[in-house]
Amino acid sequence: MAYFGDHPESIRRNENMGDEELEDLKTGPLHALRDSLGNITADYMGDFQRVMYGDDASSDHFPVKGVPAVFEDSGQVQRFLVEVGQDPDAYASITSAQQAYTSMMVHEVVNGESRSTVALEQRISNAVAPGAVIAGIMSEARADATIDAIDEIVGRALLNHSGTNSDTALDIREAATTQAGNSYGEGSMREASGDAS
Q1: Considering only CA atoms, which of 106, 108, 186, 190 is closest in space to residue 147?
Q2: Alpha-carbon span 105 to 107, nearest angstrom
Q3: Candidate from 30-34, 68-72, 163-167 with smallest mean pLDDT
Q4: pTM
Q5: What is the pLDDT, as a whole number, of residue 58?
Q6: Which residues contact 59 (CB under 8 A, 6 or more apart)?
Q7: What is the mean pLDDT of residues 162-183?
Q8: 3-state secondary structure of 87
Q9: Whether 152 contacts 177, CB under 8 Å
Q10: CB atoms within 10 A of CB 74
Q11: In terms of Cα–Cα distance, which of 58, 46, 64 is closest to 134?
Q12: How far is it, in rounded angstroms, from Cα 170 to Cα 166?
């Protein structure tokens, strides 16, 4: 994981193949593993939430199956999630696991035994915070992937139609937005970019 966090280009996909200005941005040799890395990440959601919360691997605050995974720092984890989360299958796996794990944490806070004197609302807020950070990172990854897909579709369309005017380019971008948004299910480019009104 640390390798991918330090070298996100190894799993990145270059959507601009054939663009001479961006020729140095090659598709990473391990790009095809992103969906599998998403499945693996989903299996270690407790570890990912723990590192995003800043807890030590020896903490029992975030229950995991087996021995806790140790990550160098949360920055590596964030870069890894942003790159891997751009794959629709990885995005789905990680997001589903994050929601299930956060629900389990909230269930434990509400229904589990506790000697804490902290108010229930604050304990629930603490339980959902790491999952909320991961949800935000995954939303960023989804938006990045959608924008990349739109740019690729528009770029190809413009290359194929050298006489394209600005109205036609906008029509192509709108069609691309719809197509790219559909690859991740419901949602739109405006929603993904935070431009919704």
Answers
A1: 190
A2: 5
A3: 163-167
A4: 0.71
A5: 79
A6: 50
A7: 62
A8: coil
A9: no
A10: 17
A11: 46
A12: 6
Q: What is the pLDDT of residue 166?
A: 58
Q: How far is CA 63 from CA 18, 68, 108, 184, 195, in A?
A: 47, 9, 11, 30, 37
Question: Which position has the token pair 């770029």?
Answer: 155
- Which domain does 60 fall in, by range? 2-193
Give mean pLDDT, residues 115-143.
Answer: 93
The structural domain count of the chain equals: 1
Which residue carries 């000697």 as its tokens?
Answer: 115
Is the pLDDT confidence value at 161 over 70? Answer: no
- Give the separation between CA 164 and CA 144, rounded to whole angstroms: 26
Average pLDDT across the chain, whole number? 77
Average pLDDT over residues 132-149: 89
Give residue 58's identity as a one-letter amino acid code: S
Could you give the angle at which helices 88-111 and 74-84 cross, rounded to 10 degrees?
A: 130
Structure tokens at 178: 């719809």
Cβ atoms 42, 23 nearer than 8 A? no
More confident residue, 49 or 175: 49
